[in-house]
Structure formats: C-alpha cells, structure tokens
C-alpha cells in the first residue's frame, strides 16, 4: 500500500507524521518528495549508498546548421528559446523538456542534451528503504525530480510518501497513484483554510483520504466540525506537547520521544488499511452491478 | 518604492503572521499575497473585494474526436504521458503543443486554460492583491508574477512606498517568482533542525539571485541552543539577525480573532515584531548617505 502524507499548509507536521508512521511500521519504503526542502533525513538519519542525478532536457543548438527560421522559438510554450536573425538564445531553467523544438527544426540543428537539476539519494535507515530528492538551488521545477523518484516506488512493501506543502503541481506529482492520502492539519483558521484546499485536490484526484489534527488544543474545533460535516474520517488527533515540539527541534521523531505513540500509529495504519479495503470491495460491487 | 518579501523555506514558521503585523506597522504599503496555492493572509486582513480577474496560465490540448483517426502518434510524442486512449489528462498536460503540431489529421488544438483568479481588495492596512490557484493547477510562478505586477502598478499609481509580499514556502518556481528583483527578503525560521536546514537553502537561493537578506528566528525559546546555531551561521555569512520572537500561544488567539499580533496584544511577541519591523524599515528606507556611513568602519 502507498500512503502519502500531505497538507495545504506548511509546518503542520507532515514529516513528523510520515516519519512516525514509517518507524511504527518498521519495514517499509520511505520517499521524501519535498525536494525543495527535504527534512525527513534529519529524523531517520539514513546511510546513503546510491546517488542518481536528475536531468531535464536541454536543447543543444548546432549553430552551423541553424538557418534562424525561428520555428523552435514559435513552438516553445515556455519562452525557453528566443531566435534572432543571427543567433538563438536559450533559457534552460524555463525549459519543460517537451521536445517540441527538436521536432519542428527543419535543419535538424537541435539535439537533446541533459541538464542536471537535482539528485535522488537512496539508502537505508534500519529496515526502512529510504529515498529523498534534492532540487538544486536556483532551479524552478521540482516535478521532474519527483517524477523520477516515483519510478522507484516498490511493490513488495508498504510505501510512505512525504509530500511537499501547497496544492500545486509538485503536490499532485507526489500523491498521484497513492492508495490513501493522510492530510495533516492544525486546529487554526490557517490550518482549516489550507485543509479545505488540500481536500479539493485529493477529491479531484479521486484518492481516499483522512485527516490527522496535529497540535490539537492550540486553537478551536472548527477543523473537527468541518470533517464531520464533510464526512471526512478524522483518524488521529495529536495534542500539542512541549515535549514533542522540543524533541522535534532536535531531530528526534515523536515516536522516539514518546514510545507509547507507536501503538497509536500502528492502529492508524490498520484503520487506513480497513478504509482502502472496504473501498476496494465497494468498487468491486459497483463493477458487478454494472 | 521598495519591495520586501517574507520567505522561510520551511512552511509554518510564521511568514503570514509576520507579514500581517508588518502590513499594520508600515506607513503606506500595498500588500501582495504570493502564496497562491495556500493563501492565508486574507484570514487576518479581511479584504473587501474590489476587482476579480480570471488568470489564464497556460494551454490545454483538446482532441476533436470527429477528426481523430486514432493513429496514436500524439500519445507517443507526449513526454508528459498526458494522452491515453484519445483522452487528454488535464492534470498531466503541460500545454506544450507538441501533440497539436504532430497530429497528421490536425485534430488537436490548444485551448486557453483558466488556472486561477486574482483579486484586488481593500483592507484596513491598504490595498491588497491576492490570488487563488485552480485545483491542482500548475504555473503558480506565472500567477505570482501577475500578483506582483498588479501590486507594483497600484503602488506606482497611488504613490505607495512599499510592496509587502507574503511569500510561499519552498525554494522552487513560485518562490523564485516572489523574490526576483526585491530590495530585501526577510527569512523567518524556527530553531529546529528542519528550520535551520531549510533556512540555509533559502538563503542560498536569495544569494544566487543577489537579493539582500535578513533573518528572524521565531519561537526562539523552543530550543535556545539551535537559536544560537542559527545566529552563528548568519553571522558567518554576514546576514543580519532582525530579531528573536519567543513562543507564545496567544499568537493563535490573535489569528482566531482575525487580528494581527500588533492589533491583539501578545506581550513580548508584539514588542519584538515591532523591533523587527523597525530594523527592516531602517534597512529599506535609510537615506543613501546614512546607509553609506554605516559601512565606514
């Protein structure tokens, strides 16, 4: 089973929940898909034994063949190529790697090169198979790194995906294909507002999901009321505790600071399994009806 | 006119709380919420909508099924795996137009794609430009640029002296769009290993684009030792510390009362944020002479 941990708002405790869930399972694969600011390794402290460079297409122009017709510049939807009468300017950071320029060039003057934009690191933390992506400083696009990471998702064990915050393309790339999404929020107006946005995204992707309230007690009950009204399973509330917050600040996972939480995270996993299985049964029944 | 962006790398460190306080403390600001995929500033500033505009952030392939002969060339050539069995996935399609170009039957056309909305509003602290990215949409960087452009236009027209920008978390496309060409970024961090790790990366990004930075440590007493590590790091890099804000649960109460922490008393938090603002203001609006004088050893 693949479980993604996401949230609209940043800093609600995605990494904390993802790491605690992984440690409670013991054996699993862990993907830190927050490639802009990956933090899970600070808690899991894996030994890294393989690094894979992530590249994206970079067009190479053979000026001796170029007739300066400007076709490459006109097809490029991202303004990554500007063709002038005497030369062609490339803006590699804007290139999405669609390959359009190579297809249209009548002189076959454009070749496909690769430009490094980040790295994927693979390793182990006890019996957790660990993978993290790191986007290079100054790069715009996180999705190609996440896409390459997702190809490494294993079928022979449970997979925990730590997603980036927000609701845009890197989040979609991280959580798509998951069997379940856990949305972590906090009981504040910001937490509620961003939870609603995240719910819109998982509903759009048609993935079953549930909510974890972190730092319960710091705000009000509006998140709980919202979940009830929308029929969203509220799977876990973690009360705010200075002990957990201070452990977090030192890179100590919640389940290590408070070993009693391990059992709670195991039950959370069982509840998720139950929800996804009953959904599968429901889909099968639906299929039979048709 | 000056531009200031509040950023953090790590989410949830207090960017929006600080931006809302600055909006109240600044003399004459235009406020821009550039966290377009999870905007929260409106929850404090209660904007009154003046104008709403759709945002077309890209294109989407559309297949005319009457013309399509199902040759499958589009599916082969699409590098985003966005076409499967004659259907375009709006989530996967990046609007490059390769399919439309390659289709031998000319059955594919590119349609303008609504990827969000942007708004101009009035708030008690001045005009505000904000936006909402569509569900699971892309091109948030372009929408950020649009919000910034609108804010800048208002600042010029209404002779405002500051565009105050609430930035998104992370270091990628919307962040780069939020900080390009600003006069100063204020990086808000927290004394956790994650906070420090993410601060280093966002400061490298600011440095990469040659943008001056200041740092503010929020919830500094959660881990005083890490606060010292952060301050030491900043000192080594020559980055000024604008302030250290203690942890105080009253900050959440201010948020629930739809007020900034300078309108709802939060004790030392309120006082320290005022001091942080004075430092930022001093940096932004110092007379060129005094600024130079400060550099003479």
Question: Can you describe this structure in just a few lines?
Answer:
The complex is a heterodimer of chains A (290) and B (297). Chain A is α/β, with parallel strands linked by helices and 290 residues long.
Overview of the structural elements:
Chain A is 37% helix and 27% strand. Chain A has 290 residues and is an alpha/beta fold. The two termini of chain A are 27 Å apart. Chain A has helices spanning 14-25, 40-44, 71-75, 100-104, 143-150, 169-175, 189-204, 222-229, 242-249, 254-257, 261-289; strands at 2-6, 28-32, 47-61, 81-83, 88-90, 110-125, 128-135, 159-162, 180-185, 209-216, 234-239. In chain A, the strands form two sheets. Chain A has a nine-stranded mixed beta sheet with strand order 3-6-7-2-8-1-9-10-11, sandwiched between helices. Chain A has a two-stranded antiparallel sheet with strand order 4-5. The mean pLDDT of chain A is 94. With 297 residues, chain B is of the alpha/beta class. Chain B has helices at 15-25, 42-45, 73-77, 98-102, 140-157, 173-179, 193-208, 224-237, 250-256, 268-285, 288-295; strands at 2-7, 29-33, 48-63, 83-84, 87-88, 108-123, 126-133, 162-166, 184-189, 213-218, 241-245. In chain B, the strands form two sheets. Chain B has a nine-stranded mixed beta sheet with strand order 3-6-7-2-8-1-9-10-11, sandwiched between helices. In chain B, 38% of the residues lie in helices and 26% in strands. Chains A and B meet through helix 4, helix 6, helix 7 and helix 9 of A and helix 4, helix 6, helix 7 and helix 9 of B.
């Amino acid at each position: 089973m693949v479980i993604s941990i996401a949230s609209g708002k940043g800093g609600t405790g995605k990494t904390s929940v993802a790491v605690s869930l992984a440690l409670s399972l013991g054996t699993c694969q862990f993907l830190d898909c927050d490639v802009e600011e990956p933090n899970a390794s600070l808690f899991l402290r894996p030994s890294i034994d393989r690094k894979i460079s992530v590249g994206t297409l970079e067009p190479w122009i053979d000026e001796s063949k170029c007739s300066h017709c400007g076709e490459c510049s006109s097809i490029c939807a991202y303004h990554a190529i500007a063709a002038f009468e005497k030369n062609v300017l490339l803006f590699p950071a804007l290139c999405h790697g669609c390959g359009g320029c190579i297809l249209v060039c009548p002189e076959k003057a454009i070749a496909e090169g690769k430009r490094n934009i980040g790295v994927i690191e693979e390793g182990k933390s006890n019996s957790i198979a660990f993978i993290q992506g790191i986007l290079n400083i100054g790069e715009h696009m996180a999705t190609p790194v996440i896409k390459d990471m997702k190809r490494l998702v294993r079928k022979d064990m449970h997979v925990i995906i730590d997603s980036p915050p927000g609701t845009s393309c890197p989040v979609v790339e991280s959580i798509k294909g998951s069997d379940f999404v856990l949305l972590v929020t906090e009981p504040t107006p910001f937490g509620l507002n961003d939870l609603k946005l995240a719910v819109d995204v998982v509903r759009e992707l048609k993935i079953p999901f549930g909510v974890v309230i972190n730092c319960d007690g710091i705000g009000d009950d509006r998140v709980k009321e919202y979940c009830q009204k929308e029929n969203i399973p509220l799977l876990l509330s973690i009360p705010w505790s200075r002990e957990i917050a201070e452990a977090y600040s030192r890179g100590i996972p919640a389940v290590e600071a408070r070993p009693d939480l391990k059992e709670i995270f195991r039950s959370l996993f069982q509840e998720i399994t139950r929800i996804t299985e009953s959904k599968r049964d429901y889909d099968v029944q639906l299929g039979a009806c048709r | 006119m000056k531009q200031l962006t509040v950023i953090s790398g790590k989410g949830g460190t207090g960017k929006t709380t600080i931006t809302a306080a600055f909006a109240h403390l600044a003399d004459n600001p235009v406020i821009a919420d550039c966290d377009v995929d999870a905007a929260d500033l409106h929850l404090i500033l209660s904007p009154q909508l003046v104008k709403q505009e759709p945002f077309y952030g890209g294109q989407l392939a559309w297949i005319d099924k009457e013309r399509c002969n199902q040759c499958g060339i589009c599916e082969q050539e699409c590098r985003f795996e966005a076409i499967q069995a004659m259907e375009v996935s709006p989530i996967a399609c990046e609007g490059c137009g390769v399919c439309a170009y390659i289709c031998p039957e000319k059955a594919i056309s590119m349609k303008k794609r609504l990827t969000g909305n942007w708004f101009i509003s009035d708030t008690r602290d001045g005009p505000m430009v904000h936006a909402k990215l569509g569900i699971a949409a892309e091109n948030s960087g372009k929408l950020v640029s649009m919000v910034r452009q609108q804010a800048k236009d208002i600042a010029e027209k209404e002779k405002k002296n500051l565009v105050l920008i609430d930035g998104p978390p992370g270091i990628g496309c919307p962040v780069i769009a939020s900080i390009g060409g600003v006069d100063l970024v204020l990086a808000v961090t927290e004394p956790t290993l994650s906070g420090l790790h993410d601060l280093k990366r966002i400061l490298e990004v600011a440095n990469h684009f040659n943008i001056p930075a200041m740092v503010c440590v929020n919830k500094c007493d959660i881990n005083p030792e890490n606060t010292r590590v952060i301050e030491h790091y900043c000192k080594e890099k020559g980055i000024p510390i604008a302030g250290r804000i203690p942890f105080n649960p009253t900050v959440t109460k201010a948020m629930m009362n739809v007020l900034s922490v300078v309108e709802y008393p939060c004790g030392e938090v309120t006082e320290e944020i005022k001091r942080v603002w004075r430092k930022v203001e001093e940096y932004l609006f110092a007379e060129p002479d005094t600024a130079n004088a400060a550099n003479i050893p």
